[in-house]
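Chapter summary example.
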Amino acid sequence: MIGDAALLAGGLVLLVAGAGWLVKGASRLAVALGVTPLVVGLTVVAFGTSAPELAVSVAAAYSGASALSVANVVGSNIFNILAILGVSALAAPLAVDRRLVRLDVPVMIGASVLLFVLAADGSIGMLDGLLLAGLIVAYTGFLVGQARRDREASGAGAAAEVAGPASARRMALPPNLALIALGVAALVLGSRFLVLGAVGLARALGVSEAVIGLTIVAAGTSLPELATSVVAALKGARDISIGNLVGSNIFNILSVLGFSGLAAGGRLVVAPDILAADLPLMIAAAAVCLPLFRAGYKVTRGEGAVLTGLYLAYIAWTVMRATSSPALGAFTGIMFDLVFPALIVGLAVMLIGAVREEEAAARKPGG
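The structure predicted for these 367 residues follows.
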């Protein structure tokens, strides 16, 4: 058991370090090419910080622990929205780019619903994996095309100024490619350690792989997103902060589960508890982002505190389910009968108020 815990801890350290190297190298290359911060957050940073989930889930699927793969993604996506967005907003109030509300958040919600539909039969099959992997290729291609159009609209001179001389870009290539390669190597090794340690702990404690994946592994593989988003928020790079979380959730569903399904040979098992409870909660967390972001295009510290509190409640609920706690019924009743209805009403009031303020501003002379 001590050896399993050491493997898990060592895997987490390698995952965090590897993701940091990967993000740093990839971000420098993207910036050298003149890509906007939002697109960097949605693509390069999101993919880089999702690399631990990809590495762990593919390794778990390949080694036969497929329940861990799905639980890792579902738990990570819930952690991203409730815990990381909440803590980032507590660190510094976040401004939301309108493009996120119009395009990327609906894509995140759609991907979440699609996953639920594909998983309804209890597994992610080979065709499901191919579909998800194809969609991430299409989405990434769209974002790259959008970045190119934005760069052309801003003028060739501005793009050249951001990217720098061609000779400088060529000089930046070898060290950053080496950093990316080092990051990938650390991720592969770290994912192997983490899967072995997590499965060993689950067996030693008599806890299912799904519960370990929803909690320890999900939080551990999301540490890069946490560090990236909080630091970005504190430094004022708010587009990267929120774009990273939305992009990571999209990548987790389409890329991580797509390739994990292929690695598992179309036998990626979805645990019944995850299908009945955690997947719907993941969809709900994604859906909350639409009214939350649309209401004033910002996330305040108070809203961050609410999101963080909801994640703590989710973890408590997960532990109660795993241990068959006698308090589970009462806790579930409070959450579903009181907290969630109050949350829905609060979001509706915020959204209606924000829309009315915009309409009033538009009616003013010169508005």
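To summarize the output: The chain has one domain: 2-326.
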